[in-house]
Amino acid sequence: MQSPRSMRGRRRRGQFALLGVIVLAVTLLAIVASRPPEPAFAYERGPMQSAQLIHLARYCLAIGCSNETLRSLVRDLLALNASEPLLMYPVLDAYYREVASSTRVERYVFFIIQTLRGAEAVAFGAAAQSSPVQGRYERVVRGERLIFFNVTLTYCHVYASPFFPTPAGAPPCPLSQPLSGIVYCPRLHDPRGVAELTYVGYCVWRVSVPGNYTLYDEFGVPVRVVP
Question: 70-74 contacts: CB < 8 A, separation 24 or more?
Fold first, then answer.
């Protein structure tokens, strides 16, 4: 049988423990009340949306891009976003730009999206640069004698987004408007089977073409070679 003194000690310890719980609860409630009523989490949708927009840019170039075509594709994507849980940021604007010279063709697609940080850009750039002619030779193709020109072709894509990393040691891409992002070296092919292509590395190809000629990359984007 417990003595009255031990019972009083146990009751006092229980009272102190209950008081500690009450103090902790009040403190937590005060911390919660001091914070603004905002969500404690958000969906990380930036990388996925950026990838969707980059794919849209490549598709636009493959079918013949213009500002009108690009904005129509964006409207279709946003309509899909309204009916499917794509969780996309709003696209404020989209535009296409091409820069061409005698040996280089550059194509850019820009998207302005409204993120939690404000208006930010997702950009796509493609560059095709031909070296001066390094030699020529004749070859008969399907019964026709053609003159082929040997050139070195640098062809690359750059995918830029605030949600993409910028890898170190990426090969340079000859864009007059530099973009900081992922550099990708697409495969090239000639669906007509006339040109000769050898991949050297780091987005550089040795190609032999019969004059001004169009190759295609793995996404169906036309690549103009100007010897």
Answer: 70/94, 70/95, 70/96, 70/109, 74/111
